[in-house]
Amino acid sequence: MDIEELKKTNKHNWKLKVGILGISLFLQVAGSNLAAIPMIAKTFPNESLTSVQALFTIPSFTIMLFILFSNAVIKWVGKRNTVIIGMIATLIGGLIPFFINNFPLIVFSRLLVGAGIGLFTSLAVSLIGDCFSGEEQKTLIGIQGAMGTLGNSACTFISGLLLGISWQSTFLYMLLIIPFLILFMMGYTKKMQDETTVKKTTSVKKSNTMHAKIPVIIYIAFFMLFLYFSAFMVEATASALVIQQNNLANQGLLSTEIAIGGLIGAVISMGYSKILKVLHHYTPVVTTLCGAVGFIICSQARNMLVFFIGLLLMFVSSLIIPYVYDTILSDVDPSISNLIISIAQVCNNLGAFASPYVIVFLSKVLHLTTPVDQMRISAGILVVITFVFFVMALVHKKSVQVAE
Fold this sequence. Notes:
It contains 21 helices and no strands. The protein is mainly α.
C-alpha cells in the first residue's frame, strides 16, 4: 500500500493514535515531584539546597543532549526501538531513587531520566507526520501539544498523594510509563514502522535526502521558538514576584491559577486544527499577540482575578508550538523531518534555559529591573515575534496568489 493511502487509512486506527500520543504524556514529567525537595534536603543534610534543587533541573541537560543524539540511535535501532529504549530508560532512572539513599546515584538516575526522555521527545511529533496526513495530522499535532501538560498535571497530583508516605514514594509516579509503553508497542508495530518509513532504495533518493533543502521559514521559526521560550519562562519565574510587588490579595491562589490556566491552555491546544482553519497562517500572529497582552495585564493587575485572565492569555500563545511543528511536517522533506523537529525542540529547551540571562541582559540595557518590568520586556519580545509571523503570513499569502 502507498504511504499516503496508508496515512489516510490510519485515520481510523485508534490503537495507533493512542500509542503515539501516549508517549507525549511523559515529555514534561522529570520534575513532577518538586514538592519532595524539602524532605529530600532533610535526608541529605550534607548536601546544599541548591544541589537538591538541581536534581530536578539536571534532566534538562541530558534531554537536550539526547534529543540530538536520538537521530543516531534511530538510524541504528529504528524509531520503534528508540522509543522503547527511551521509555525503559526513563522508567528505570525514575524508579532508582525509590530503592536507594545514595545521593550520587540519585544524581545519575536523574541524568538517566533526561536521557530517556530526550530519546523519544522528537519522535512524539515526527511519528505523527509519519503515520498521518492532512486534517488528521493537524488535529493530532494539536492534541500532542496538550499531552505534555496533562501528563505533568497527572503525575504531579499522584506524586503529591504519595508524598504523605515518604519522599522516595513520590518517584513511583514513573510506574505510569508501563501501561503507555505497552500501548505504544501494540499500536506502533514493527509492520507499521516498516510501512511508514521513507525507503531510500535508489541512489537518486539517497542523493535527494543528502541534499534535502530546509526552507528559510524553518530557520526563522527556530529563532522565534528560542525567543518565545525565553519570554514565556518569565511566567514561571516572575509571577510570584509580580503579585508581591503589586501587593495583591489572596496570593496563595497563584499555584491554583497556574495549574488551571495550564490545563485550559492544553484544551485550547487540542483545538489547534479548528483554530488553524479560521486563522490560517495568522494563527501565531493572533496567539502571540494574546500572550503579549496577557503579560501586560498580569504586570498591571490589581487583583488575582485579573491576573488569572492575563495568565490565560499567556497560555493561548503556546499555540505557536504546534503551528511550527505542523509547518515542519508540511514543508520539510520527510527524510529529515525528525532531525528538524529535534533541532526545534533543542531551541525550545535552549530558550527556556537561557531565559534568565536574556531577560537580565535586556533589563540592564533598558534599565528596567523589577519583576513587573520583566513581564513588560517579555510582552515586548512577543510583540516582535508577532510582527515576524505577520510578515511571514503576508509573504505566504502573496506567494499563493502568484502561484494561482
